[in-house]
Write a structure and sequence with these properties.
The protein has helices at residues 2-29, 48-55, 78-86, 103-111, 123-128, and strands at 68-73, 94-99, 115-119, 135-139, 145-150. It is an alpha/beta fold.
């Protein structure tokens, strides 16, 4: 009987340590930036999995000097809706990164001709530490962040 109780307590302690470690790791990854916006910082490189997702979102020019504007948007955000409504439909260098989008929201983005990455479970979004929307990030061909800011006007980040 005593052995079972000791084993149960050992399991409880191990689970608590695992939970604590997971919480500390999540906090380290999603730490807000100095400006309170969160997300990738100028001069850092986006994780390869995010770069691959952006590249698969739609056609982009393939020249080495290509830069891409990524707008992190959410469905219920009014400023995000303004960004979507005013985004240039012919821009081949704009990708929307939608957090947990509904099917209807994705359909409306597709009908508008906007390249979109759907982060259905918000795993990539959370890993980047996005805390404000619409966060617009300009990256170079290697995925390094050149500029960033919260705005509904993507033209601020053109060329």
């Amino acid at each position: 009987m005593l052995v079972n109780e000791v084993a149960q307590w050992a399991i409880i302690v191990m689970l608590a340590l695992i939970a604590l470690g997971a919480a500390r790791q999540a906090a380290a990854v999603a730490r807000p930036s100095e400006d309170g916006i969160g997300g990738p910082q100028v001069g850092t490189r986006l994780p390869e999995v995010v770069i691959d997702a952006i590249r698969s979102a739609g056609p982009h020019p393939s020249e080495p000097a290509t830069r891409v504007t990524v707008a992190f948007v959410t469905e219920g955000c009014r400023a995000c809706q303004r960004l979507i409504a005013t985004a240039p439909r012919t821009a081949t260098d704009l990708v929307l990164f939608a957090r947990t989008p509904s099917a209807g929201f994705l359909e409306s983005l597709s009908e508008a001709g906007l390249a979109t990455v759907a982060d259905h479970e918000a795993k990539l979004w959370d890993a980047l530490g996005i805390t404000a929307t619409p966060l617009v990030v300009r990256i170079d061909q290697k995925g390094e962040v050149l500029a960033r800011g919260v705005t509904h006007d993507v033209s601020e980040f053109a060329a």
